[in-house]
Amino acid sequence: MEFQKPRLPPKAPRSTLKPSNVVTHDLDFYVHPNLVPDQDPCKGRLLRATGPIREGTVLLVDIPYAIVPSVTSNEPLICSNLSCSRRVPQNGRAVRCEHACLKDVVWCNVACRATDKSRHNFECSWLKKHAEALRQKEGEYNFATVWHVVRLLATWNAELHSGNVLAQQRHPWEAHFLRGWKAVDMCCAYLDSWPEVQITHWKRLVHEYLSDATVLPPLLSAEQMLLLLCKEETNTFGLYPRATGSQPVNDNAAPRGESYGMALYPRAAQFNHSCLPNVTHKPDGQARMVYTAARDITKGEECMITYFDLTTHKDLLSRQNHTQEQFQFKCTCERCLKEEAEENIESMDSLPFGF
Fold first, then answer.
1. pLDDT at 7 over 80
2. What's the CATH number where 98 sits?
3. Cβ pair 294, 55 in contact under 8 A
4. What is the pLDDT of residues 66-88, one digit of tens each?
5. Poorest-pLDDT segment among 143-152, 228-237, 293-302, 343-352
6. Where residue 349 falls among pLDDT bands split at 50, 70, 90?
């Protein structure tokens, strides 16, 4: 798999938003004032527009709670300092762990490494003991998944010991969008939706790699760890050099490129999927995920993204199979229902009526 250098989109523009319409925000999070969480009896959590939103408007910008690079070539990695998360070339300038825990752990410079010391100390011994064996035995995908879970725990551990009080609200949006580990904890696991064989596999990974108290502080029980792993699998976003969901669904649409990492954006995990999305998403140069209106959105409309590359899965059957296999649900979005109805009509027309 080859990586491509991403084209960095503009940051959430303050100047293009009228001051009266801007919700006070910080470097961690931005949300448009017309975007709010809602509940549906069938879908559960979702995000809805409470007023009209113009095409091209930045709706939400979220930082990752944890991030891991995709390692399949000599392309740039990702700075392990979560507040930086810039791409780092694998050359002599990349700063590595003093304990040589894993070659994929890099920082931009010694300052980033020093800033990240508390978080990285949590994962360092675990990586040194388990990383290479896990990767060789379980494969790259399972290694990245388990490492991502460890990094989620590492960020939580750093949060617990940072002395920062997150309980007190500082911005109006915090009434609807939680901070820190609370936002991760709110993510859905959908444990009952996964096949038993998959759950059994994850239980083994938890037992073999996430229950070693000699290198991993026991923040969670085995049952809680399994739920966290399910949440990671269900809510993680891939990082791609081009936007997901921005291209028209036709034969000339450009794919989003190869993944260079994956991350959990717990507040953005409230976006539901549609094969006809009205919101696109793309990471900026520091792995902040930027969600933008793909078209004009009307008041009361649900804001939805696509969970996969629509240029890869174009027809109804391919999309339905992909959502079922990868996300454990049958897509019933507007596009799928329309195409399914059209196929049913064509099937009825082919029946030998009137003979």
1. no
2. 2.170.270.10
3. yes
4. 999 998 777 899 999 999 999 99
5. 343-352
6. low
Whether residue 146 contacts residue 210, with contact meaning beta carbons closer than 8 Å, is answered with: yes
HEC per residue, the chain: CCCCCCCCCCCCCCCCCCHHHCCCCECCEEECCCEEEEEECCCEEEEEECCCECCCCEEEEECCCEEEECCCCCCCEEECCCCCCCEECCCCCCEECCCCCCCCCEECCHHHHHHCHHHHHHHHHHHHHHHHHHHHHHCHHHHHHHHHHHHHHHHHHHHHCCCCCCCCCCCHHHHCCCCHHHHHHCCCCCHHHCCHHHHHHHHHHHHHHCCCCCCCCCCCCHHHHHHHHHHHHHHEEEECCCCECCCCCCCCCCCCCCCCEEEECCCHHHCEECCCCCEEEEECCCCCEEEEECCCECCCCECEECCCCCCCCCCHHHHHHHHHHHHCCCCCCHHHHHHHHHHHHHHHHCCCCCC
Residue with tokens 């064989």: 197
Domain count, the chain: 1
Range of the structural domain that residue 99 is part of: 30-162+176-342
- The model's pTM is 0.87
Specify if 10 maps to a domain: no
Domain assignment of residue 216, yes or no: yes
Mean pLDDT of the region 2-12: 37
Place of tokens 């590492």: 154
7 falls within a domain: no
126 contacts: CB under 8 Å, gap ≥ 6: 150, 212, 215, 216
Asked whether residue 104 is assigned to any structural domain, the reply reads yes
